[in-house]
């Protein structure tokens, strides 16, 4: 697959082309295949929820988008080697009945995302809240992690 953009600067005009990687071209092929055969489909990226990881002096916070998921269908685990895994089951059913038409679409699927975390967090005090499709996990830092800041003095470089 080839994408081309024409760039015009002054009197000069040239074609800028970009070639996708084999992996992205294959993903595009799969996504477009379902359009060709007219089946409902879901993007490959939908198997991993979008996340945001932030940190302040006291804790690490992970937020994950899980729209359409019920809190009972969410599983959050932290492994002994410091990996946080968020898993969820998505269930969606749409039914539409009109005069002479009937339409029903059902989607069941799972999403999962694993995130490496800093070692010195107090996993026993981790807390998770789920509201309006957003899962927020707060994990407090241990005293060791809080004290890991080291001041480095800056001096003028010696001339060589």
Explain this structure.
With 160 residues, this protein is mainly beta. It folds into two domains: 1-41, no CATH class; 47-145, Sandwich (Immunoglobulin-like). Helix content is 12%, strand content 47%. It has two helices and nine strands; from the N terminus they run ββαβββββββα. It has helices spanning 22-37, 143-146; strands at 2-9, 12-19, 51-55, 59-65, 74-78, 83-97, 102-116, 127-131, 134-140. The strands form three sheets. The chain has a four-stranded antiparallel β-sheet with strand order 3-4-9-8, with no helix packed on it. Strands 5-6-7 form a three-stranded antiparallel β-sheet, with no helix packed on it. The chain has a two-stranded antiparallel sheet with strand order 1-2. A hairpin with a 3-residue loop joins β3 (51-55) and β4 (59-65). The longest helix has 16 residues, at 22-37. The model is unreliable at 1-10, 12-18 and 38-45 (pLDDT under 50).
Secondary-structure topology with pairs:
Layout (H helix, E strand, L loop, with lengths): L1 E8 L2 E8 L2 H16 L13 E5 L3 E7 L8 E5 L4 E15 L4 E15 L10 E5 L2 E7 L2 H4 L14
Antiparallel strand pairs: 1-2, 3-4, 4-9, 5-6, 6-7, 8-9
N- to C-terminal distance: 53 Å
* Whole-number tally of structural domains: 2
Biggest sheet layout: 4 strands, antiparallel
CATH topology of the largest domain: Immunoglobulin-like
């Amino acid at each position: 697959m080839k994408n081309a953009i024409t760039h015009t600067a002054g009197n000069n005009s040239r074609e800028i082309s970009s070639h996708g990687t084999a992996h992205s071209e294959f993903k595009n092929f799969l996504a477009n295949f379902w359009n060709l055969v007219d089946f409902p489909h879901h993007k490959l990226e939908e198997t991993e929820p979008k996340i945001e990881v932030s940190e302040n002096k006291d804790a690490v916070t992970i937020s994950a988008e899980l729209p359409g998921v019920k809190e009972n269908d969410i599983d959050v685990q932290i492994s002994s080697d410091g990996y946080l895994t968020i898993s969820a089951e998505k269930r969606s059913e749409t039914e539409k009945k009109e005069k002479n038409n009937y339409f029903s679409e059902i989607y069941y699927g799972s999403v999962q995302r694993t995130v490496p975390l800093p070692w010195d967090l107090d996993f026993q005090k981790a807390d998770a809240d789920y509201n309006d499709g957003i899962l927020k996990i707060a994990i407090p830092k241990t005293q060791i992690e809080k004290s890991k800041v080291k001041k480095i003095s800056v001096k003028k470089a010696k001339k060589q």
